[in-house]
Design goal:
It is a single chain. This protein has 324 residues and is an alpha/beta fold. The chain has two domains: 32-136 and 256-279, Rossmann fold (3-Layer(aba) Sandwich), CATH 3.40.50.2300; 139-255 and 287-323, Rossmann fold. 49% of the residues lie in helices and 20% in strands. It has helices at 2-34, 47-59, 73-86, 96-105, 139-149, 162-179, 194-197, 219-232, 241-245, 257-272, 294-299, 303-316, and strands at residues 36-42, 62-68, 90-94, 112-117, 130-134, 155-160, 182-187, 207-209, 236-238, 250-254, 288-293, 319-323. The strands form two sheets. The chain has a seven-stranded mixed beta sheet with strand order 7-6-8-9-10-11-12, sandwiched between helices. β9, α9 (241-245) and β10 (250-254) form a beta-alpha-beta unit. α2 (47-59) packs across α10 (257-272), α3 packs across α4 and α5 crosses α6. The protein starts with a helix and ends with a strand.
Length: 324
């Protein structure tokens, strides 16, 4: 009887210690998961990047270190050496130059999530440890929007440098054909080619579509395109509210950079759950906005298109922003 009682007592003791061990392990694991070491590499200090970082941090708890490379790859290399030595759980690359630096200098054993990056394919950053949230809106969404708000549209003009945007134009031609539109694409090698390339549209276009091609998106090229669209009284579609404030007619753009950071956090959480970055495709931004220059609409007699844009935004849950 005494032996049996001792056995029961021993069994209870063992069970108790196993239970305590299990609880301690569970709590330790949970704590570790909530305290991931996340290092942030940003291209420079500006509101857009800082908003994205704030959105990421507010949704992904962790121990953070932040590095501003100030668009300088030599500085980035120094920071990367420190990052590699400390080997965090994840690196958040904010901006194109930060992403290029991360790809070139940070160990491939560290997962990298990017955000606020336009057309990442042009940067040659594809790697099994890299994924993220691109900045541009899908071509199909852009062209469907243009078709929906411009009555009887048939021809859309666009300029591009093949070195930068061949993939965008190829996709745009495919989508345009599906939508019954003709995409007239003019090639430029430098910004000095813009004025001559605009003559390609002398036969008439119903809208001009500006894509984020660095050869075309320069002060000089923008002014020439703006002058052309104003003279022809055709809608000038851009990708940034800043360009609408500078005189373009309308933009379909990302509504909130904080949400870009939150979206990048969702990707990071998937990586922390065990999904390799290579199995997570690049994502397009969620939460879009249409900005309309109402003064341009009146001057160019485009008020009906502006009204169509407001209605389209309302129907699709987009934010609408009238600008002067």
């Amino acid at each position: 009887m005494i032996v049996k009682s001792r056995n029961v007592t021993t069994l209870i003791s063992i069970t108790f210690f196993l239970l305590i061990g299990f609880i301690f392990f569970t709590l330790s694991t949970t704590f570790a998961q909530g305290k991931k070491r996340i290092y942030i590499l940003k291209s420079m200090d500006n509101k857009f990047y800082n908003d994205a970082i704030a959105g990421f941090k507010s949704n992904c708890p962790g121990e953070y270190k932040e590095f501003n490379i100030n668009n300088n790859y030599a500085i980035a290399k120094t920071y990367a050496d420190q990052i590699n030595a400390e080997h965090p759980d994840l690196v958040l690359a904010v901006g194109a130059r930060a992403l290029i630096a991360a790809k070139n200098y940070i160990s491939s054993s560290i997962p990298i999530v990017f955000t606020v990056v336009l057309n990442p394919e042009r940067l040659n950053i594809k790697a099994p440890n890299i994924t993220g949230v691109r900045l541009e809106i899908p071509v199909e969404v852009q062209l469907k929007t243009i078709k929906a708000i411009v009555p009887n549209i048939k021809k859309i003009g666009v300029l591009y440098n093949p070195r930068n945007s061949e993939n965008i134009i190829k996709e745009a031609k495919r989508v345009a054909a599906k939508l019954g539109l003709q995409l007239i694409a003019g090639r430029v090698e430098t910004e000095d080619d813009t004025l001559d390339a605009l003559q390609l549209f002398a036969g008439g276009i119903d809208a001009y579509w500006l894509i984020p091609d660095p050869t075309v998106v320069t002060r000089k090229s923008f002014v020439e395109i703006l002058k052309f669209t104003n003279e022809k009284k055709i809608p000038f579609f851009v990708f940034s509210k800043a360009l609408v404030k500078s005189g373009a007619f309308i933009a379909l753009t990302v509504g909130d950079y904080v949400s870009l950071g939150a979206q990048a956090c969702e990707i990071a959480q998937r990586i922390f759950s065990g999904i390799p970055p290579s199995q997570i495709p690049y994502e397009y931004p969620r939460g879009l906005e249409i900005a309309v220059n109402v003064q341009v609409a009146r001057l160019l007699n485009l008020t009906q298109i502006a009204t169509n844009a407001i209605m389209f935004a309302s129907q699709n849950g987009y934010k609408i922003t009238p600008l002067q």
